[in-house]
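Progress note, sequence design subtask.
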């Protein structure tokens, strides 16, 4: 496992060679997500045509909780970026309109621009995955070598493999004052991002066929299927499990999977050795504790598509005035996470 910013440029350059759309998720506010993006832009500015956008609004000048100034996203001259019209008014760059879209937001229509000078930009991209995917495709056609999507963990659906090819996760002290809790949560998310994919081609095909027409389906041990009528798994866990028999081997769910589904399996006496299949890890919203109970009872969770987590960046300080011992924080994370972890430090010299 790697740490330290001396290896970050190498990892980034190698990643860009293979991945055209890269998402950056912040586990909470003030965890180095913007610092990470600014480091990336600084490292690649002379080598690649960079594109940037976000899922929903991000990059507001002040943190809504602390009211402290937030780090600004600095783009270089020639950067391609997509943002809403009103957000453009809060930026200090001279934009050149490249292409308009029909993606309407509360902040106006989203358009694609080129920066005519270096400066900061407020990003406000689409809130719908389909729109974001189309936007990224347009930016690639325009000439971007790589696109970075700026977002937050509560809007992590944009990290789906259907949109981005690789993901960087940012975590840090602002998640919680308790360092062990931050390590536990970060490790839990890492574990979800690295769940086993469905390797059985027959089960994979049946699962995909089920999800073409319904939100929830059951695959039995003889490969027969039962498509359920529930419009979503949310709030329907008891109804779903009432339709499972002892022959049920796979429960396929298209939407969000929460604690209630896993809890229902733990308390259910007739269903054993069940594998729950999710489309990808962005649909998983359950706690580490409930997940462990689910596994302990013999449950298994797999995904049709895995998230390509390439690195984790950390910020051991909080704007609320406390900080973790950086070496201890990094060491605890490295003991449980098998991807490169970096503390990129402040970006003050990059943000001027």
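Output:
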């Amino acid at each position: 496992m790697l740490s330290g910013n001396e290896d970050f440029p190498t990892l980034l350059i190698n990643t860009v060679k293979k991945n055209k759309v890269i998402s950056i998720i912040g586990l909470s506010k003030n965890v180095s997500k913007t610092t990470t993006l600014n480091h990336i832009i600084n490292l690649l500015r002379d080598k690649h045509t960079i594109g940037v956008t976000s899922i929903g609004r991000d990059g507001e000048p002040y943190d809504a909780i602390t009211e402290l100034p937030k780090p600004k996203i600095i783009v270089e001259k020639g950067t391609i970026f997509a943002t809403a019209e009103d957000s453009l008014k809060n930026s200090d760059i001279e934009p050149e309109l490249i292409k308009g879209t029909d993606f309407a937001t509360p902040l106006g229509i989203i358009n694609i621009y080129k920066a005519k000078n270096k400066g900061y930009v407020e990003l406000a991209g689409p809130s719908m995955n389909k729109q974001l995917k189309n936007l990224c495709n347009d930016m690639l056609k325009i000439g971007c070598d790589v696109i970075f999507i700026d977002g937050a963990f509560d809007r992590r659906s944009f990290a789906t493999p259907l949109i981005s090819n690789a993901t960087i996760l940012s975590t840090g002290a602002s998640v919680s004052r308790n360092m062990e809790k931050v390590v536990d949560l970060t490790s839990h998310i890492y574990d979800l991002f690295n769940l086993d994919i469905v390797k059985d081609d027959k089960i994979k095909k049946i699962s995909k066929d089920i999800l073409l027409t319904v939100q929830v389906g059951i695959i039995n041990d003889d490969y027969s299927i039962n498509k359920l009528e529930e419009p979503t798994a949310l709030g329907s866990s008891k109804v779903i499990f009432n339709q499972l028999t002892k022959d049920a081997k796979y429960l396929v769910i298209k939407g969000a999977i929460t604690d209630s589904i896993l809890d229902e399996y733990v308390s259910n006496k007739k269903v054993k050795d069940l594998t729950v299949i999710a489309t990808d890890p962005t649909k998983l919203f359950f706690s580490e504790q409930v997940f462990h109970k689910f596994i302990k009872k013999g449950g298994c969770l797999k995904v049709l598509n895995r998230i390509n987590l390439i690195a984790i960046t950390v910020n051991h300080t909080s704007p609320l005035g406390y900080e973790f011992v950086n070496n201890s924080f990094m060491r605890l994370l490295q003991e449980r996470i098998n991807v490169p972890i970096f503390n990129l430090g402040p970006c003050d010299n990059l943000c001027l």
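The longest helix spans residues 179-193. Work on this subtask will continue into the next period as scheduled.
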